[in-house]
Structure formats: C-alpha cells, structure tokens
Design brief:
The complex is a heterodimer of chains A (about 350) and B (about 475).
Chain A (H helix, E strand, L loop, with lengths): L2 H11 L5 E3 L15 E3 L6 E5 L4 E5 L4 H10 L2 E2 L13 H7 L6 H4 L2 H4 E7 L5 E5 L11 H5 L8 E8 L1 E2 L3 E8 L2 H12 L5 E7 L2 E8 L1 H11 L2 E2 L3 H9 L12 E6 L13 E3 L4 E6 L5 H8 L3 E4 L15 H14 L16
Parallel strand pairs in A: 1-2
Antiparallel strand pairs in A: 3-4, 4-8, 5-9, 6-7, 6-8, 10-12, 10-13, 11-12, 11-15, 14-16, 14-17, 15-16
Chain B lengths: L2 H9 L7 E2 L2 H4 L16 E3 L4 H14 L3 E4 L16 E4 L6 E5 L4 E4 L5 H8 L4 E2 L12 H7 L6 H4 L6 E7 L5 E5 L10 H5 L8 E8 L1 E2 L3 E9 L2 H13 L6 E6 H11 L9 E9 L1 H17 L4 E4 L3 H12 L1 H8 L2 E4 L9 H15 L3 E6 L4 E8 L4 H20 L15 H7 L2 H14 L14 H7 L18
Parallel strand pairs in B: 2-4, 3-4
Antiparallel strand pairs in B: 1-2, 5-6, 6-10, 7-11, 8-9, 8-10, 12-14, 12-15, 13-14, 13-17, 16-18, 17-18
Helix pairs in contact in B: 8-10, 9-11, 9-12, 13-14
Classes of the chains: A alpha+beta (about 350), B alpha+beta (about 475).
Bound molecules: flavin-adenine dinucleotide (FAD).
Flavin-adenine dinucleotide binds next to strand 3, helix 5 and strand 10 of chain B.
Amino acid sequence: MSDLIDMLAARLKNKQPISVIGSNTKGFLGGALTDEPLSMREHAGIVNYEPTELVLTAKAGTALSEINTLLAKSGQMLPFEPPMFGEDSTLGGAMASGLSGPRRIHLGSARDAILGLRLINGLGQHLRFGGEVMKNVAGYDLSRLSVGAFGTLGILTEISVKVLPLPEQERTQMLTYSNARALSEMIRIGRHPYPVSAMTWVNDMLYVRLSGTGRGVDAAAKALGGETLANQKRYWNSICHHMHPSFKQDQEWLWRLSVPPTTPINSIPFEILDWAGAQRWVHAAPFDYSLFELAESLGGHATCFSSERVEGTGMQPLKPLVMQLSHRVKKALDPFGLINRGRFLEEAS
Amino acid sequence: MKTEILVAALAGGMSSNRVLHSSHETAPYECDGLTMFKARPKVVVLPETREEVCYVLKVCQENGVPVVARGAGTGLSGGALPHAEGVLMVMAKFNRILAVDGDARTARVEPGVRNLAISEAVSELGLYYAPDPSSQIACSIGGNIAENSGGVHCLKYGLTVHNVLSVTLALADGSIVTVGSDALDSPGYDLLAVTIGSEGLLGIVLEATVKLLPKPEEMRVVMAAFDDVTKAGDSVGRIIAEGIIPAGLEMMDGPAVAAVEDFVKAGYPLDAEAMLLCEVDGTRDEVAEELLKVERILKDSGATMLRVAKDEAERILFWKGRKSAFPAVGRISPDYYCMDGTIPRKHLSLVLTRMREMSKRYALRCANVFHAGDGNLHPLILFDANDPEELTRAEAFGAEILELCVEVGGTITGEHGVGIEKINEMCVQFSSDELTQFHELKAAFDPTGILNPGKAVPTLNRCAEFGKMHIHKGQMPHPELERF
Ligand SMILES: Cc1cc2nc3c(=O)[nH]c(=O)nc-3n(C[C@H](O)[C@H](O)[C@H](O)COP(=O)(O)OP(=O)(O)OC[C@H]3O[C@@H](n4cnc5c(N)ncnc54)[C@H](O)[C@@H]3O)c2cc1C
C-alpha cells in the first residue's frame, strides 16, 4: 500500500479529521470542506483491465482521461460517460460525486456501473466491498452506497467498474422543435425500441443520438427524420462536460434539477433538457434557493452548480426521516465524523 | 415471549384470522426454495395494509421478537427461513399493481406482485419489466428487491438494482420511509442501492416503482453445441471482445443438457459437452447484423452445431429448456442443491475442471447451468436428502465450490443471496472488519436487530466457530477471535 493510504488510515485511527479531493474539478459541488484537503491524485494507476471480462479496476486518483484512452484502445468505454469539468478529473472524484453524462438514459449511471471498491472508513480500516464480477450480492451494497456520497462514507482508494464496447456506429439527428414539442417527442421515442443513447434539447433543437450497428442506426435515423449533425462528438462533449454556451449565464447561478422525465415543461424554466427530460439545467438569480421547493413539489430535487455559492451545501434538504437515517448511515461508516467534514450532509440538528 | 401472548398482542392490530399459529397453519411456511433448512415460526402473519405491517413491527420491536419477511418463498438461500422464536410476515396479500405510467415508463407495485405479472400487465403498452429470474411466474417483486435478483437477460438490461426507481420501506420501528424517487436519482446517500439486495434485514418493502422498457422489435436466439467446455467459454469472450452485448448468453454442460432435453424436448444437442444460447434483440436491422456476427464467431470458435430458432415458438421453446433447468434436474435426482457463485469468466475451464474433480471426490453428480455472459455459475449438486451422510457431502461439496469461486477472484453469490445457506462462506469472502462494517450498517436501519436475524452477515463468533478464516498474505483476518 502506498504511503498516502497508510498515512490517511493512521490519521483516522488517531481520530484526526481528514478531507480528501481528487483534482478538485468538482470542488464547487457541496459544502466547503472544514479541513484542508489532501489530494488523492498521486494514488493513481490501472490495477487490472481485462476487456473481455468487461471490468476495469483503477486506483482512485487515476485520471479519467487516462482511463478513457486505455479503454478506447480496446474499443471500449465507461458506460456512464462521466462529466469532466477539467483535464485532470479522477475516477475517485467521478464516483464520489456520482455524476453521469447524457448516455445515462441508455447504459445507466456511475452507481449502476460500479462493481466494487476499497475504502478507508472513519476508523481508518481499509476495507473491500463488491468485487470485479458483474453479479455479486454477498453483503450489503456498500459500493453503490458510496457513489455520490462525496467521500463522506469513506475515502475511496480503488474502484472496479463495468466497461462496455464502444458502439459500432453513432449518429445524431437534429430536429427543430420547441421545448414542449421536444419533450413529447422524447417521450414518444422513449416508448419505441430505437437504439437511442441520448436525447437532449437546447436552443430550440432536439438532439437524438443513436448508437448501435451500422444499419440499425441508419434505419432509426431515417425513421426519426431531421438532419444529421456533422460534428456530433463536439456537441455531446459540450453537453456532457458543460462547455456548451447555454450552461453559462452571466450573473446567474446554474442549477441541476433531477425530476420525473414527464414533468411538464412549463413547471420549470430551463435552458437545457438532458436525459430525455429527467435532467434539466436551470439558471436562477444568485441566492435564489426556491428551486429546492419547486423541485421537491415536482417529485425531484435540485443541486446548485454555481461556483459563486459559498454558504451551505447547495444540495436539496432531505426529508426528516431520510435525514435521520442518513445520519445513522454516516455514523455507521464514520462514527466520529472525521471524513470530509462540511462537504455533504447538512449538520444534524 | 409466550406464543399466546404474542398472538393476542398481534391480533390487537389486525384481523385474528390472519394471525396463524397452530402447527398445521404454520407448516406450509417452514422453508423457502431451499428445502434443506426448515423451521416453524411461532406465528405467521398475513398483513393486508401498511398499518398492519407497522403495527406488527412495533409489537415485535417492543418485545424483541424476530421478524422474517416472506414473499413467494422461492428464494434459494433460506432468506425466508422462519425464525423459531419469531414472526413470519407473509407479504402475499400486497399483490396490487397500483399504477402504470406508459409515458414515464414506470409501474408502481406492491411487493407481493409476481415478477411476470408486471410484464403481463404492461404488455399491451408495448412495455416490459426486464429482470427475468427463471422463477418469474412465481417470485415476488419484494423478494426480487431483497435479493437483487437477476435473470437470463441481465447481461444487457441489468439486475433488479438497475431497474428499480424507488422503494417504500417499513423500518423495524414501524416508521415508513421512501428511498429513491420518480426521478433518475435522489439527493443524499443512495439508500435505495443499499436497500436492494439487503435480504429483508434493513426493512420491509411496502411498495416499489420499477422501470419499464419498450419491447424490442425483434429477438432471435442461436443455439450452439460444443465438444469442449473451454471452447464454449472462449466463444463467450470472443463475442464480447467483438463489441456485442447479447440480450442473453447462457451455457449448460452435458449433464444439464441431458436432463433438460429429457424433460422439455427443446431439441438440445445430446452429444454436446457444452451448449450455448445466445440471444440478440433490438430493431430488425440491428438483430440481422448482430446475428450474422454471432454465428460467425460461434463457428470460428469450433461450434459443432448451430441453430437459429426459426420462429417465435421455437425461440420460446429454446428458452423454456433453459428456464426449466432446475426442475429438470429435480426429475433425475431425489434432491438437488443449487449453487450460485460468480467467477471472472476467464477461469471458467479451470473452475469446471476442479468441480469435476470434486464431483468424483464427493461421489456426487453435478450438472452446470451458467449465466455465461456475466460469469454467474449455477452448479446443481445431485443428492438424496433422505441419506443424511449424502446431504452432508452435498453441503461440503457446495461449500468447496463457493470457496473456489472466491479463490479465483469471484464471489459466493451472484443473485440468490447469502441467506442462511452461505453464511459460513461469508467468513471466507470478508474480513472481520468488513463484516463488522456490515453489522454497523444494519444497526443504522434496525438498531435492535429484529429483522431477519442470523441471516446474510455472520457474527464474528460464528466465523470463529466455523474456523473459516481467510488467510490473506499469511495473515489471518480474524486474529482477535482466537480467544473465543
Ligand atoms: C426454479 C427457481 C429458479 C430461480 N431462478 C432464479 C434466477 O434466474 N435468478 C435469480 O436471481 N433468482 C432465481 N431464483 C431464486 C428466487 O426466485 C429469487 O431469489 C426471488 O427473488 C425470491 O423471491 P420470493 O418472492 O420468492 O422471495 P422469498 O423467497 O419469499 O424471500 C426471499 C428474501 O426476500 C425477503 N423478502 C421477501 N419479501 C420481502 C419484502 N416485502 N420486504 C423485505 N424483504 C422481503 C425474505 O425475507 C428473504 O430474505 C430461482 C428460484 C427457483 C425456485
């Protein structure tokens, strides 16, 4: 084990608080860390990759770009298309934040892809859960529980994920539609077994990405109509990694609303529809936290994605019982509350 | 607690004709699908409402009475084995499909709804519920959630955990909490993920919202015979290496094929050492293209026979054979013991060879069915439970298989759960710190430990008692236990 891991475990054993980050490209999400963070970036490297087993295991500090490059050489990819908000985004950070890109509606989320992990719990014990096989129901699913927990249930040190083949062909159809028409079209398409791997709407245009075999994709494109987008990689990257101009709005804060996909369009004024309607990107005036209430009333939740926000966690307040249960779960893994203080759950009242 | 007092307390909150305690009433519930473990519960309750479930939980928590949930009782790890001192809570009466939303592609169901009933109910909308355990005509969605069940199509469409959006749980103290939502994700910790596969130890499932998928335009299945299991195994790796994720990819060895063919007459190749079923689905064009590739790969891998089901009736027949594998083996032996390990696929031939050696050593026959795409093995050990000595051998054989799975980097259970059956092997797969972590998590949900006690996660004492110490880098992971 590396010096860093030993040091982290030793400090936790001594009940010293610890904060960790990857490359901090998602540092604007969640609350400000109470303790000066240590970077996991040096704890990097591919531990195991076997294309025909559809599994990759890497240390938490491994750069996603390195993983993507390696996988592409064998014609494979991370199924959840992890958003990267900087060159240096790490696998650990991707899993800790639990974000997934446009492909999520087709091949699932980061939490769906994780197969196993190693973590250091709040007692400084280095534990292993799950494994490197597709199906594994031995013990509670602590791997999936840790995804999206921002490291507060334990420091992720090594992660195994499911990988999948790159599609043989990919093609994106564009249709000029209002947001209302686009949403009803997304619903219609979703009920049909087209090989769809992403559906978004922005600037009065519906984008449908088709992934599959050559003829299958072409036939579906024909059935859907519209124009074929020339530089599709660039478009999907701009949506996935938030480089599209519609994510930016001077003076306003960016919010992510995760809602039931059929939520009527006029209930939230959004800029971008992703995940076939289930993920909506919204701009709001600074300090306007009313989106929490709105999202909850629609059966979803809101997360603030603005780096301007400094107070709170910018995350949807939990319902009382879920909150209580969550604090008990946190205690089960980090009884003294030492890891990543301030980042995730609002303090227990 | 005296039975009469418990019965009276329970009947205070629900109709007494759904509180069963005489031995002829409780007898039908003495085991689940794993018949080698049996116990009569003190009381069986059949609640019909959430209030009744919560009432029972409160009474039991106050009095420290264990509660075991039961769905359809098809579980294969003894998860629904009653507790002799406790209450068995049968969820069968929660059998309504509450709502179907075709546009959102979701169904809201009660836990006692049968897996297949969901697909049947939404079929006219062109939708279905993807996870399809072979027991799907009988098993309940509550049981599926508790076990994180898979099916022959989970290589492409995922397990239960990938297909459930939210679960409403009654906790041990009788409070009700919903984890997950109708959106694709929820704020806070992913409590939904940890609930799925928790074997009835964290809460009682009262309701679930599941995802539905549009039915594929076309499905085609190829049957391939091999004269060597290694070749069959290698062909699976090659299909995946060529970028194809089949909808289903199943393998059976010679003994399994023979048993099934005798039972179902599916046209399986009786002279084969191994047989594969590979299904591709999607739009007509996609299926046509993938089918060609699959056929070529199977041929190149040395298939001695290839047959594409000529129509839907034959496709269903090919699958019927596979889905009837367990009962088929049940016909050729007084009893069979179904194992459920998962291995990295590359070790398939090693594991099969070692199992053949074990079969000789234990003098027990073994037939193999295998979710080949995801490495999940179901060796079926044939034995006669009336012969206690043979039963002991079968159990030892099974345990050795599971330990072999762990040794090659796999796991002791892919989809059937730990239950009571694999509780000792948990000591092999996990260190005592890891097991302790599981117990801590359980306590977060169920501080007094009334839900399904003694299942899924062994106590450290138990591990010490059974001496299943995992020797890792020359170190025993349970050194602190030697004093026991
Ligand atoms: C012939 C046969 C084939 C099978 N094939 C497969 C297969 O292909 N794939 C697969 O994964 N499994 C398979 N199984 C195993 C079994 O069918 C599954 O584990 C199934 O999910 C069990 O569902 P059940 O309703 O019968 O649950 P039960 O057996 O009644 O219970 C199983 C577990 O779930 C808990 N439970 C049940 N209901 C609830 C609830 N409402 N709330 C909380 N906990 C609950 C119980 O306490 C127990 O721990 C097969 C079994 C048989 C007999």
